[in-house]
Predict the 3D structure of the following.
Amino acid sequence: MAEYDGMRWVRCDLQIQTPEDSKHWLDDETKLAEPRTETDIQAKARVYLKRCHAVGLHVIGVTDHNFSSRTDPREWFLTHLIEQNKTVAEQESRQPLVIFPGFEIDIGYHLLCLFEPVKKGEKLARISDVLSTLGLAPAARFNAGQPAQLRHDNAAVSLRTILAKVQDECGGIVIAAHAFSNRGICDDSANIGDFALPNLLCVEVSEFPLKSKAKAVLEGTDSSWKRVGRPPAYIMSSDTKSLQTDEHGKPNPNSLGYRSSWLKMSQPSIEGLRQAFLDSDSRIRLTDACPSDQEAHPRIISVRVKGAAFLDDQEVNFSPNLNCIIGGRGTGKSSMLEYLRFALETKPADGLPEDIKQKHDSLRKTLEGANAEVHVTFEASTGVLDTVVIKQSEHRRFIADREVADLNTVLEQIQVQFFSQGELTRLAKPGQNHVLRLVDAATGDVLAILARSERDLKGQLEQLGAAAHRAKAIKSEVQRLTQEVEELGRQWQARKDIQVDAAVQQRAKRASTFVTDVIAAAEADAAAVERLADEEIANQPTMPEAADEWPQVEWLRQAHDAMSVARQEYQYALKDAASKFRLALGVNFGETSQWPVIREELNEAEQRFVDACKAKGLQPDDVTRLQEVDRQRQSKQRELDEEKKQFDDLTSQAAGWGDKLAALHKVWRDQFEARKLACERIQSATKATSIEVNFMRDETSFLEIWQRLNPHDNRKRLGKNWDEIGAALFETHAKNASANSPWELIELWRTSADDLIEAPQVLYSNFTELLAHLDSDATRRTWEEVRLTRVADFVDVELMRPDGVSAGKMSGAGGRLLSEGQRNTALLNLMLVQGSGPIVIDQPEDELDASYIFSDLVPLIRSVKSRRQLIIATHNANLPVNADAELIYAIEASEGRGRLLAEGGLDRGPVTLAVLNIMEGSEQAFKQRSEKYHF
């Protein structure tokens, strides 16, 4: 994988002194011997460098007072520091330090002057020469070991002179040292004029967060020290005079690493420092930990394109922050973004305009070559990297180096969003509810959990509804069976002359039937336990051959064997229990029990009844018929008992319908509250939009549900007025904040007709027909389903102008409907402030109001780019330049193919030139425009 060439954080200490200044150096063991020898200097330089690595520095600025009094570069500590740098870094398994050579001077207050790093110590002589031309030749730099104040021709040297010499003429950078301490620029009000010089880009502070005077001056609230334009950047440095640490191993005050700053640069250079000072909000952090360590959001690491039709083979290594792909038309910058989409999208976007679909089809064809491949590496969570590969010629997309059961599940982890050209406009189209989807995404897992509850409750309500319908059907069956039993009983009771014998016979028969049922149930129970023991207990899984390689395999094997024994004992115990149960059955109802005697007694009661019938002159056929009536009566009675029990059970179940419906309504309210909280969080992240969610106020959603109930009969008044009735119902619900849904308003009016008087006339006059329609056999089931259907919440977005005045709303509420560009601006604003996954956008400026790009979009991008990755193809210089892109990837067209022109941050010369030529039309064009604007 190619090395990332964009900007990254480096830890810098830009004011360190060395043993070069023996008067101020505090450590005896690293002071330089006199006379100086190269061997001694080299050894102590290595100690110094190792300590730099130990405290985690990447960049140092060597600023010994007045550089050195020595004239021979071989006697300079800095010479050997540079020459030993690579060797020590290799020993420490780290990259070599970037060493800015320079010096600290006193012009009434102290200044740090740094210059470009050099690879050979001999080249340091020119830096010494700079100090000489300013007025301090080597022999005049120290008096009795104390550094002399900078003077030229016995006169003070001004800051303007220093800035002109060091920054303009020699390409260095000037920093006001310990600005608020003794001998600092802000320690004396006489220096206010110097502080106001715009070319003084940076000062040094000794504590952070800023306090008292430093805070007021650097934040511009102290009117005495105000500057025109931007305030200077501020950094912290150690002002090193020692390598010593305290008893805890931490640097002592003014020891190496005691204070430092994190600066973001492509490659440490004077231009990198200058750019960081010009854009300190984006590129300077005064923290102990590396700022990027706090950035754990998902990110696309790289895309590698090979064999594409119109792009040279190339690889883009993205920053986890802001990436801008720039180039003229036809260079392939949009293709690069769409290749990312083809690789990472979990499902093709639905409803894309035909032109975008055609563009995607055309781009897929550019990858149909036999050797064409796209490799996209992404990091869904810290340390978890995957590479998805596209081989369009084989119609394959897969994860490299591992098998996955479901590719989309893997890709969903990165949470990436893609927006092709024109897609923002489609999403922000009036009548669409895409803003609600953004809000839902901002709720995290809350809505997913509530959605499961909603599905469960709706399922239970549907079951309870079915139970109520079944109970209603069973009720009529109970009524029929009751009547049948009554009629059969009348036939049975008609022969009173055998009434007593018949009663005894019936009691005996019921007793006999009871015992028969007890025996049958016991037999079934015993058989079920035996079947469980023999058939239903699954065999224990066997350990595979690969188990030998498992950790703790011996313990697992012992546990497995123990469970096998336990399982056998369990089966034996079940069989033994069944056997004992059968034995109990035999003891109580077997031939040796009292049951045969009792059974004979019951049978005798039956025989006495038959004898009584004969004695009374009944014919055998009459007896048979009477017995058949008895059997039918008992059978119907049992059927009636079963139906009554089922009816009671179903009625009891259906009685919980109201509680479940109330629980569903609460879930709907909880969903609304979750969206409301998400809106508040989104609102707190941006001043450009105002967002609010309204409970069940999406009219499109309501009308879709309402039309499911439409009688589709314009011959009757209800059908003719259907749309008007729906509009009135929706309007009434919108005014009734306590209503759980529009459908519950109808049910409320059904039971509380007085409330209906307040409803619109069209509802009042058609309500009787509406109820009859909803209760009809044709509509009742649909109505029951509609009562369980949620009308979507509606999210409205208000766009605020830079001056804080409302530009209008997406809904047009209040008479101010946003234009297309304004809707797109509002939507993009919301997309950026919620979520953590990457956002990939192709030329957003084409769809946005120009006035918002610099005033609102740029600050928004700057605020969110540390929390999520942004990859943007753009023609607008505001995005890479003013939003301070960590990676600018410039593409040019050559012989019909897009190839890399330059990449990195704006602190790289080729990148700056590419931006100037591509986005500004050239330096001359930019200057001519600025002249016409009177800049």
